[in-house]
Every structure is written in C-alpha cells, then in structure tokens.
Amino acid sequence: ENSACYDWKMETKSVVCKSCGAETIYEAHEIANECPYCGSNQVMEAGAEHIMAPGGVVVFKLDANKASELFQSWIKHKFFCPKLAKESAKPKAFKGLYLPFWTFDCKTISSYTGQYGVKKRTAGNNSDIKWYKTMGIYKHNFDDVLICGSKKQNTSMLNGLEPFNTKDVVEYKPEYLAGFMAERYTLKMHDAWERAKNKMSQILHQRIRDEIRREHRTDYVRGVLHSTTHQNITYKYLLLPVWTSSFTYNGKIYQFMVNGQTGKVSGKTPISWVKVAFTVVAIIAIMTLLNFIS
C-alpha cells in the first residue's frame, strides 16, 4: 500500500453545506459563502480532520468561457430537449472544482470457464447451435482504474465525463488550487478498492468473452465465470478538473458538468414528450409503409 501524505503545503479549511451535505476544501483565507453544487448559502466550517493531500493533479485546460460554449453546443444537439429549454438554458456562473479520484494499477490473472457455440446445419436447411465447454487463463494489466472519491456525485454523470487522460497528471502544488475549489474525499481508499475490483471484474468478463470468440471463431458465447487474483497493487489519490453549473427550466434545476481537461459535457436535460410521441408515430408510420410496399 502506498504511503499517505497529509501535507497540503498550505493552510486549508473544510466547509460543509447544510443543504446538500457536500464538503469542499478551500484555502484558509478564502471566503466560502455558497455551495458549488446546490448554490445554497447554508455553508459552515466542518470539524478538523486529517485529509490526505493529493498525490497528483490534472490541471484545468479550459476556462469558464470555453466550458460555457461547449455546454451551449451540447444542449443544441439534444433532439428531445424542448426548444424553449435550449433558448433559456443560460447556465449560472461556472464554478471550477477539483474532484477527488482514487486510481489503481494492478496485474490480474483470471481462471475462467464458459461455453461457446457452433452453428450446425440440420434437416430442412435449418440451423442449430451446438455448445461446447471451454476453460482457460486470462492475464491483463490494469492502469489507472478511476474511482471517484466522492459519495455525493452522480455516478452516471461522472461516467459521461470520462475518459480523463491521467498521463497529464503533474505533481500536486498548492498554486494549482488558486481560484478553484477542491471537494474532499468521503470514500476511503479501501472502499474505493472494492469498487475498483468490481469495475475490473466487469471489464475482465467482457474481455474474456471476446477472447473466447476469437479463439474459437464464433459469435456465440454463454455462461462465462471467472475468478481473479490481483497482484502488484498500487494506488494514487488525484484531483481531476471539472466545471460545474446548472440551469432552471419550468421550476426544475438541471445540473451539468464539463470535463475541465477534454471539454466533454455530461448532464440531464428536459425532455419534450410531444417530440417523443411524434417520433414514435413517425417510426411506426414508416415501418407500416415499408411492410405495405414489401
């Protein structure tokens, strides 16, 4: 296990929002009067607690103006979003935020079993699939498996921001946080490792299925089970850059994020069910016409 460093190289304070529960780290001299997530001004300093300093940072490559441009372009391409929402989606002031992430490297060795199918011709020119058992060993090295260290963040929204290029990680320096906020991690390293193992398991399951397909030259695979050992495990605690903001439509707040490194946008938008209904009707009409022609 890597050694932990608690020296942020500057005086910090942790602030908690009484409204949504988010905890954010600021420089001690900064005035924190608004939550970067919900906009509430019900913020107060949290109790003193040692928080591990980050082992590295991916610095912001995009400014707030560029993030706003990318958001406007993103929402314009949301077909089912109401036109009025697109026209009125003027995001509030963007807030630059460093999110805490744990990243894990390790070597894996998986023993697996499964079945692959071979299509056979039967009487009457029909086809049937004959199944055969298979087993084997699959090895894979994982590099920088990311797990968000915040329990508050929306997982699907964060997944929409990936990938981050962790090759751009630089050594943490306090000046990188100047003008930005940094959310403190609430998911401890050992819990993050359990989530990382689950994430690796899903990736390995698909890779093993692909391996069976290639080895036996078939499209039919089922019943894959695998058991994995993890070796040479290392971890890092990183801060990754995100622009966060929101807009209001019909009295409802829609939060979104922009990857501060790549510019990828993620979030939810309103849905025009009238557009959805017209689209469904149009598809049914086209299918009916095609069936009639054929």
- Overall average residue pLDDT: 84
Give the N-terminus to C-terminus distance in angstroms.
66 Å
Q: Give the amount of beta strand, in percent.
A: 35-45%
Report the total helices. 5
Characterize the structure shown.
By secondary structure, the protein is an alpha+beta fold. About 25% of the residues lie in helices and about 40% in strands. The chain has 5 helices and 10 strands; from the N terminus they run ββββααββαβαβββα. It is flat, with a radius of gyration of 25 Å. The N and C termini lie far apart (about 65 Å). Residues about 30 have low confidence and may be disordered.
Helix and strand layout, with pairings?
Blueprint: E1 12-17, E2 23-27, E3 43-45, E4 56-57, H1 64-76, H2 83-88, E5 95-122, E6 126-148, H3 155-161, E7 181-183, H4 189-216, E8 220-249, E9 252-259, E10 265-267, H5 273-293
Parallel strand pairs: 4-8, 5-7
Antiparallel strand pairs: 1-2, 1-3, 2-7, 5-6, 5-8, 8-9, 9-10
Using brief descriptors, characterize the structure shown.
single chain, alpha+beta, 5 helices, flat
